[in-house]
Amino acid sequence: MRIAIAADHNGVVLKARFVGWLTERGHTVDDRGAAEGTGVVDYPPLCEDVCRRVVAGSVDRGIVIGGSGSGEAIACNKIRGIRAGLCPDLFHTQISRGNNDSNVLVVGAKVVGPDLAEQILRTWLETPFKGGEHQRRIDMIAALERGERLS
Q: Quick one: what percent of the chain has pLDDT higher than 70?
């Protein structure tokens, strides 16, 4: 799988761990920054970069790591076609992929320890989208993105 990954200053250590883990398992990783030691980094441009690559199809999925992940999830979900899931635990991760077909994983490095983060990453990569009634809801989300009313 082709995966773009980025992290702000809070997530660079976890990002490096993810890059190694993904590469060891045969994934093609496009590391979009930030680099360790670069100081404080604003996350919205990183989110935009990763998400635009996902939407364009140059990567299959994206990963963004921040402190809490909250701002990153908000920024990612501003990009049409992105379904970014903030995943602080395995339950949210399974729902994010299985029900919501998330194409961007968001993790908070200050919230999730590195071992759990790896479990989250593995679960996110391995959990298939269920389709069915969940596809209907994804279609509704896409309609909202286009500015359509649902009722």
A: 100
